[in-house]
Specification:
Length: 291
């Protein structure tokens, strides 16, 4: 379930995040169903510069976040227990974030749609495995150890298959959380469908070729990891599972999200695009299996 909240649900700022990615974020308290929740918030501009043309285009990242969250959840992947969208005025955002948002969107908006998710109090993989390093040689060793950890993790092939399906171009080590028992939790789906300049029926465009970041990272330190039979067959099994989950529950959940942003004909175009990417043939070929 995704929550849709007004500005009066905002309760105040918390200490700044320990680490940040490419997007401006903050920590804050939000009232949800009468309870105060500690959350991460990502304010998003209405427009972004297209990396292909440099021209302003509609920023679909808020849709990508919501869509990626419901698809991950309905497909059985671990996600934060609370997430949603809150509209905040510029007066509710820190000045340093407003400056970053102005640079991204070209001006400061009166209000911003923000994607939020509950602070699960788990470190991300970058924090757990790479924090406190200032020696390049030591960083390389830590990266290798992290890649080897992921190569053996039961969730890795599932996440790779999920990101292949949705063309996630930014599954970096900062948006995978690691719980104390080792389970992996996905956050940040803002770069599904390649880039947030996508339109209904068409994936986003960028001057560089989108790649599966997690798969490339593991392959760098464990050569041909993704071609190993247990991995390629695991990706095929995961994709088949996603297809079943999507067609039984995910499509309905996706339509519910998309209907907040698009007209019915556009919703159907996006649903058709997502459904059409559930193609097991490449994985089956890599695993040497017949469909």
């Amino acid at each position: 379930m995704i929550h849709y909240l007004k500005r009066d649900a905002f309760s105040g700022h918390l200490r700044a995040p320990a680490s940040k990615g490419i997007s401006p974020i903050l920590r804050a308290k939000i009232r949800i169903n009468g309870e105060s929740e500690r959350c991460y918030l990502k304010p998003l501009t209405d427009f972004i510069a297209c990396p292909d043309t440099g021209k302003p285009v509609v920023n679909q990242e808020i849709v990508s976040e919501a869509l990626g969250y419901v698809l991950a959840s309905t497909c059985g992947l671990s996600t934060p227990s609370i997430a949603g969208i809150i509209a905040l005025g510029k007066d509710q955002l820190p000045q340093d974030l407003l400056s970053e948002l102005e640079e991204i969107g070209g001006s400061i908006q009166p209000s911003y749609l923000c994607w939020f998710s509950k602070d699960m109090e788990h470190p991300n993989l970058k924090q757990r495995h790479l924090s406190g390093i200032n020696l390049p040689s030591l960083e390389e060793r830590r990266l290798r150890r992290l890649a080897q950890f992921l190569a053996k993790h039961a969730d890795a092939a599932k996440i790779v298959a999920f990101d292949d399906w949705l063309l996630n171009s930014d599954r970096n080590m900062g948006n995978i959380l690691q719980a104390s028992l080792g389970a992996l939790m996905l956050i940040d789906h803002g770069r599904i469908l390649a880039y947030p300049n996508w339109t209904p029926g068409s994936v986003g465009s960028m001057p560089w070729r989108a790649q599966n970041v997690l798969e490339s990272f593991i392959n760098r330190f464990t050569p041909r990891w993704s071609e190993l039979l247990p991995i390629s067959s695991g990706k095929l099994m995961a994709l088949n599972s996603y297809a079943s989950s999507y067609r039984s529950a995910g499509a309905i959940a996706s339509k519910s999200v998309l209907s907040n942003f698009f007209e019915p004909t556009d919703v159907e175009a996006i649903i058709a695009l997502i459904d059409g990417r559930l193609d097991p043939a490449p994985y089956a070929k890599a695993a040497g299996l017949m469909l």
